[in-house]
Design brief:
Layout: H1 5-10, E1 14-15, E2 18-19, H2 22-30, H3 49-53, H4 71-91, E3 96-98, H5 106-121, E4 126-130, H6 143-152, H7 154-176, E5 183-186, H8 200-220, E6 224-228, H9 237-242, E7 247-250, H10 259-266, E8 271-274, H11 278-283, H12 286-300, E9 307-308, H13 321-334
Parallel strand pairs: 3-4, 4-5, 5-6, 6-7, 7-8, 8-9
Antiparallel strand pairs: 1-2
Helix pairs in contact: 4-5, 7-8, 12-13
Length: 341
């Protein structure tokens, strides 16, 4: 991993003699405000914690005996999860942590992990949680039944969407009231690589109203919203932007999404996150991987604002750690905005 203190100093952003934290620069980026120095980075999920530093990722832990644990043991389990989130964010210079997959304690457990991260790291990182009540692509077991319902049980789908939205927003508001949270990640997937699962009319009827409502509610809670979906978003991107998210993630090149094109057409309305090709990171040559990382940096940073560097999905289980670290090292050395003026 790169250790260049002099480079870190020259890439700091300062206002009134004070160095801005990664959290502050991340939030400025989601608001499409100019930032200087190194372009912010994070990952929707970073699952390579065991390989990186010998810790099981929180979402891979299962506590079947949570109810039998003492309060002290529960606290130790939650603290260890908070330490894991902080460890990978610091190791890879992330500006934000998506606190997702907390094991044990339900909403109370998630709130406690957020508290512990703030105790450990202060305002070093922006903190995000999952919040997306909208329908995504159904799994294989539900694909046929869900597709039938799109045509034969439209009222039932709206009732289900209403319940999901109400339940999700109640939980999110409860977490937001703690003052620990900066934003949410909305992670329902709508698209395959070749095309969206939902037609434009289906999206407009079954998804857009509830996505728009959820984003407006989160904004009212004081939270910024990152909308994620993999695949070919091009037939739906205008409808998604109209719902009002602050950022789009993951801008998937495997779905034919061209970051430069999206930036030209939509960069004035929404921040952009991602676009490093995960398939290349996993199976491509080192030369092809490096070229793709540099392409994403070039295209994402062209506007000098509104871009968060990251993969086009997440650092998923099975992705070679050395490839992620190669991506990180190129970003660290080259992902630096030129000085203003």
């Amino acid at each position: 991993m790169p250790e260049h203190p002099e480079q870190a100093v020259c890439c700091e952003e300062r206002i009134d003699g004070r160095t801005l934290s990664g959290r502050e620069r991340f939030l400025k980026t989601l608001r499409r405000e100019p930032v200087s120095g190194r372009v912010p980075t994070f990952e929707l999920e970073f699952y390579l914690t065991m390989e990186a530093f010998g810790r099981v990722h929180p979402s891979h832990r299962r506590f079947g005996q949570w109810g039998q644990m003492s309060q002290r043991e529960r606290e130790l389990q939650l603290r260890d999860q908070a330490e894991t989130f902080v460890a990978f964010a610091r190791k890879y210079h992330h500006s934000a942590i998506h606190v997702n997959g907390v094991s044990g304690g339900g909403v109370d457990g998630k709130i406690r992990v957020l508290e512990l991260i703030r105790e450990m790291a202060g305002d070093e990182f922006a903190l995000l949680v999952y919040c997306d009540p909208t329908f995504g692509i159904p799994d294989g077991q539900r694909m046929m039944s869900f597709t039938e319902r799109l045509y034969e049980d439209q009222a039932g789908l709206h009732e289900e969407a209403r319940r999901s939205t109400d339940r999700t927003l109640r939980e999110t508001e409860r977490i937001a009231r703690t003052g620990l949270l900066d934003g949410v990640c909305m992670c329902s997937d709508y698209c395959f690589n070749a095309n969206p699962f939902f037609s434009r009319s289906m999206f407009s009827e079954f998804i857009a109203p509830y996505l728009t409502e959820s984003i407006r509610a989160c904004h009212a809670f004081g939270l910024l919203c990152i909308k994620h979906t993999d695949g070919n978003i091009l037939p739906l991107v205008d409808l998604m932007v109209d719902c009002g998210p602050d950022a789009l993630h993951s801008l998937d090149p495997q779905g034919g999404v061209d970051l430069a094109q999206i930036s030209r057409e939509w960069g004035d309305k929404v921040a952009l996150c991602g676009n490093v090709n995960c398939a290349l990171l996993q199976t491509g040559s080192p030369e092809d991987c490096a070229a793709d990382v540099r392409r994403a940096l070039r295209d994402g940073m062209a506007r000098n604002r509104g871009y968060v560097f990251c993969t086009s999905n997440c650092a998923y289980t099975g992705l070679p750690l050395e490839r992620y670290e190669m991506m990180h090292d190129i970003w660290y050395a080259e992902g630096i905005y030129p000085p203003a003026g």
